[in-house]
Amino acid sequence: MTIRIFIALSALFLIACGASAQNVAGDWKGTLKVGPGELRLVLHISGAGDGLKATLDSIDQGATGIPVSSISLRSLKLSFTADSIGGSYEAVVNQAGTSMQGTWTQGRSLPLAFERLAAPLKTSHAAANPSDIDGAWAGTLDTPGGTLRLVFHIKNTADGFTATLDSLDQRATGIPMTAVKRSGASLTIEAKQIAGDFEGQIAKDLTSIAGTWTQSGQSLPLTLSRGK
């Protein structure tokens, strides 16, 4: 009799543990490492059971609301496909339903883990009074393959500085920068999605920022001038 009760209680315990993992609705954040670069991803899941739906944001590419074509959860195994970008994901959700470890496939397969967000990730920022470096800053990068005209758009917000990058000769505009940090006259702009960053010194007259662009271990001089 004791053994039967123990077995019954064990079964109930396993069901209780699995129950939280079955509830995957919410927001999940992960970082996909692509070569030397990194892409921050946010997976938005809603619904339950066979009625799961989802969208995907690629924050560092400025792409939001990418439709997930199909998504399913069987036991602890989550899988979804995003046909519009030719991608798919398979993972195992932990018993607590707080993280998942899996593989992202899009031409090639890469490891990708997601963690549940306690609160929605902030992607928009409240306005703040413009700083003395708000605006467009243009410069030309001399690379072994030729010159690249770059424009950084810097903006002060209630949450600190943000920036986007235009690479005019590559016809790429509005690339979100990962982080912007300023300490006095020192300015650092990070672009983890392309494994790059800019470090410079702001001129006293606020007309230029002289510094260095570093990408994949290679450093090149880059001076930015304030645009009109």
Please tell me about this protein's structure:
- The chain is mainly β.
- The protein folds into two domains: 24-116, Quinohemoprotein amine dehydrogenase alpha subunit, domain 2 (Lipocalin); 135-226, Quinohemoprotein amine dehydrogenase alpha subunit, domain 2 (Lipocalin, Beta Barrel).
- It is 9% helix and 59% strand.
- The chain is built from one helix and 18 strands.
- A nine-stranded antiparallel beta sheet has the order 4-3-2-1-9-8-7-6-5, with no helix packed on it. A nine-stranded antiparallel beta sheet has the order 13-12-11-10-18-17-16-15-14, with no helix packed on it.
- β5 (70-74) and β6 (77-82) form a beta hairpin.
- The radius of gyration is 23 Å and the shape is elongated.
Key attributes of the depicted protein:
single chain, 228 residues, mainly beta, Lipocalin, 2 domains, 9% helix, 59% strand, elongated
Give me a quick take on this structure.
With 228 residues, the chain is mostly beta strands. It has one helix at 2-22, and strands at residues 26-34, 37-46, 53-58, 63-67, 70-74, 77-82, 87-93, 99-106, 108-116, 135-143, 146-157, 160-167, 172-176, 179-183, 186-191, 196-202, 208-215, 218-226. The strands form two sheets. It has a nine-stranded antiparallel beta sheet, with no helix packed on it.
Overall outline: elongated
Radius of gyration: 23 Å
**CATH homologous superfamily (4th level) name of the largest domain:** Quinohemoprotein amine dehydrogenase alpha subunit, domain 2
Give the uncertain stretches in residue-range form. 1-20
